[in-house]
Amino acid sequence: MEYYLHLVLNGLVIGSIYSLVALGFVIIYKATKVVNFAQGELVMFGAYICFALTVQMGLPFLVSFFMTLIFSVVLGICLERVVLRPMIGEPIISVIMVTVGLSTVLKAVIQLFWGTQVRVYPQVLPSESVWILGLPVAPVYIAAFCLSVVLFIIFSVFFKYSTMGIAMRATAFDQQAAQSMGIGVKNIFAMSWCIAAVVSSIGGIILGNINGITPQLGHLGLKVFPAVILGGLDSLLGAAVGGLIIGILENVSDGVAQQFFGLAGFREVAAYFILVIILMIKPYGLFGTHEIERV
Amino acid sequence: MRGKCGLFFTSYAKESQILHTGFQKSSMALFFLVLLLAPFFLNSYQVSLLCMINIAVIGAVSLNLLTGSCGQISLGHGAFIGVGAYATGICTLSGWPFLPALLFGGATTALVGMIFGIPSLRLKGIYLAIATLAAQLILVYIFMRWTSLTGGATGMGLDPPMILGYSFDTDQKMFYLTLVFSILAVLMVKNILRTKSGRAFVAIRDFHLSAESVGINLFRYKLQAFGVSSFLAGIAGGLWAHYTMYITPEQFEIGLSIQYLAMIIIGGLGSVIGSVFGAVFLTLLPEVLGVLANIMSGFFPNISTYFLAMRDGIFGLILVLFLIFEPDGLARRWQLAKSYFKLHPFAH
Fold first, then answer.
1. Does the pLDDT at position B303 exceed 90?
2. What is the pLDDT of residues B234-244, one digit of tens each?
3. What's the pLDDT tens digit per position in B307-348?
């Protein structure tokens, strides 16, 4: 029992990172209808920039954290302007492949600068475990979880009340109507890429603090798909819930597979089995909008 | 037709011919003559590249049928090729002759492809892409973990193909074998596109609702597209497995799927000749980059340490640039070049 409780707690932490990355994905999809296969590379990029600033340039962690966020904003704007804007109106396959190409380029840039070995962040939080429900949990896990929750609250408020957030929701709902009401749709697109890049970098920095970073981290971007499909492609709440559920299910099913079937490494694909099942039963997810086609 | 400017057709059968004019026919014949003689002039490394191109042409043309012509995005093509490779390999290892094993591999892949194609009835666009992505990752996991059948991570060693007691054990012999299969695959796809099924595929891609309302059975034709495409992918896999004589699950990871998608995008979506161009382009790209790196190593001594990362980066960059500046791919460039020479002295 304790074994499973541990799995659930671990799943909750990794799930909160999935939720963060999924949040970035959903923000882009909602506003621009672009399916971003480079989400994992955005995570990685943020993580490596923060690593370079903290370890290689010796800045204090908080300073480099905020500088990374500024860098992500610039990166988001550049990507949107240079790569994604010419893709407006192109078929889905082109848009998918342009983000795939982008992810390859980003990965290559990271390998050119930082190589392929594991990079470890300096210890920011104390390493002594805190006891929760009779289980030892590292403080960095708690910080990761709390940070994710705080970010979700911030973005929910942002989308609900701020002018920018409302403009973004309007664009997502109907681009033409939004444009005729005086909303700069192109700015909204750039803004959504900025937010996605920022959120992803935060996810990356948290991951870096937990496990260290390698260029393999980009695979995380593929784990986003089960989470967003479960939650519904265009729902922020869905991203949060989907990420957490996928994180937990993945860990628990891995534990079950190992204990009862002796299958190692089921963790890598558990999420995709769940994904296939969701696609068969409820393709629009828990909170996604149902697309209705009329002739 | 002779002696007049341009082409005009008096029957539909004539219009749907693959090669219209005598010039087209003779230049095609010349091309094949050069190709058949090529192994006598090239060294065995260059011939091995030609073999890889032949195999890539089969894979690319099959993916282009599914994704380019029928509009069903598949991110699982690499894994389908893997299914063909393993199925063929397992058969020949258990004593089957090569050709039946290859056909069995193709049929198995067609079956697997159709199973993963079933969701395409309900899912489209991005949802289908994600479903095939799941297929890709799950299939590679199965290659990795079904150790008793596939050999797991250590892989599977195979013999060169043997047909009626004749062993294709050199690059030269393999070249002719793969060339036959790649010509058959190209002809097959080209001919499918000229039939009712082919027109149904294109109709489904262009707008599935109007296709359905003119009486095209969506499910049947989508499944057919998945079946034919996966069958050819399986053939490509079987040939590849017996050409490299060693297969591991890493060969069939998502990178391979992306590479095949890049081939058909760089070549031209929905164009048969484009798939051939894309396959040639992306098979030769690493070689050209390798040569460039060799030349540059005089100026930058440690370039080889960065070479792998740079190769991937340049691949991605070329993909992105093609999508932004030439979304119709090399096939369109080819078309433009042809029409330029057709009108040569007079630009308009």
1. no
2. 999 999 999 99
3. 777 888 899 999 999 999 988 889 898 988 888 887 777 765
Chain B nearest-CA distance from A22, in A, is 14
Chain A positions in Cβ-Cβ contact with residue B137 (cut-off 8 Å): 222, 268-269, 272
The distance of A126 to chain B (nearest Cα, Å) reads 36
The closest CB to that of A90, out of B138, B306, B327, belongs to: B327
Instruction: Give per-residue burial for A135-159: e unless 16+ CB within 10 Å, then b.
Output: eebbebbebbbebbeebbeebeeeb
With beta carbons under 8 A apart, name residues in chain B contacting A229: 127, 130
Could you state, in order of their start, the residue ranges of all structural domains in chain A? Answer: 2-281
The answer to whether residues B56 and B287 touch, using CB atoms and an 8 Å cutoff, is no
| Grouped pLDDT means (10 residues each) for chain A, 295 residues | 81 86 88 86 90 85 89 92 85 88 90 82 72 74 83 86 88 83 87 90 86 80 88 84 90 85 79 86 79 70
* Domains in chain B: boundaries: 43-252
- ipTM score: 0.86
CA distance B156 to A281: 37
Query: Would you call A96 an interface residue with chain B, using a CB distance cutoff of 8 Å?
Result: yes
> Which of A105, A265, A276 lies nearest to residue B134, judging by beta carbons?
A276
DSSP 8-state secondary structure symbol assigned to residue A54: I
**Lowest-pLDDT range of B43-52, B152-161, B213-222:** B152-161
Alpha-helical runs (H) found in chain A: 2-32, 39-51, 61-79, 92-114, 139-161, 163-173, 175-180, 185-211, 220-231, 236-256, 267-281
Of the candidates A228, A226, A279, the one whose C-alpha atom is nearest the C-alpha of residue A250 is A226
Contact present, A54 and A122 (Cβ < 8 Å): yes
pTM of the model: 0.90
B165 conformational bin, left if phi > 0, alpha if psi -120 to 50, beta if neither? left
- CB neighbour list of residue B195: distance below 8 Å, 6 or more residues apart: none
The B-side interface with A (CB below 8 A) comprises 67, 71, 73, 119, 122-123, 125-127, 129-131, 133-135, 137-138, 141, 144-145, 209-210, 213, 254, 258, 261-262, 265, 269, 306, 308-310, 312-317, 319-320, 323-324, 327
Which residues, 6+ apart, have CB-to-CB distance to B272 below 8 Å?
B61, B64, B186, B189, B190, B193
- CATH number of the domain at A2-281, please? 1.10.3470
Q: Which residues of B touch A102 (CB under 8 A)?
A: 316, 320
